[in-house]
Amino acid sequence: MRITLPYGMAALFLASSALAAPANTPADSSVRAAQNNVAPAPGATLSEADAKARMAAQGFGSVSELSQDEKGLWHARAIKNGRRLNVIVDAEGKVQIGAGK
Q1: Residue 35 structural domain
Q2: Is residue 59 part of a domain?
Q3: In degrees to the nearest 10, what's the CA dihedral of 44, 48, 53, 59?
Q4: Could you give the CA distance from residue 55 to residue 93 in angstroms, rounded to a whole number?
Q5: CA dist., res. 41 & res. 37, Å (int)
Q6: Whether this model's pTM surpasses 0.70
Q7: Banded model confidence at residue 2, pLDDT cuts 50, 70, 90
Q8: 4: in domain
Q9: pLDDT at 85 > cutoff 50
Q10: Domains identified in the chain, total number
Q11: What is the C-alpha separation between 19 and 74, in angstroms, rounded?
């Protein structure tokens, strides 16, 4: 009986550590980067998916009319707090409310 007690405690420890792991960890690296506010490498431009992830991380939804200009800025229309806004995402991933294209 003394031998089974350590095995039982080890099993309990392993089960509790599995429950402590985050359940809703994003699988997509662009979403994780946006949530952690990590800027892309210098000279790199954001992909369309990265720009959408940055907007989503800032609370913007229903993104439409997403396009990139010659300077690498992403322009879109999106909704935040019930308002449809013009949104700009720069090359570093900073999200701003801006004027139209």
Answers
A1: 30-101
A2: yes
A3: 120
A4: 9
A5: 13
A6: no
A7: low
A8: no
A9: yes
A10: 1
A11: 40
- Evaluate whether 40 touches 72 at the Cβ level (below 8 Å): no
Distance CA 76, CA 86 (A): 6
Quick count: other Cβ atoms within 10 Å of Cβ 54?
A: 25
In a domain, 19, yes or no: no
How does pLDDT run across 61-80, given as a tens digit for each residue? 999 999 999 999 999 999 99
Count of residues making up the chain:
101
Provide the token pair at 98: 């801006």
CA–CA distance, 74 with 53 (Å, rounded to integer): 12
39 with 71: CB under 8 angstroms? no
Look at residues 95, 37, 38 and name the one whose alpha carbon lies nearest to residue 66.
Answer: 95
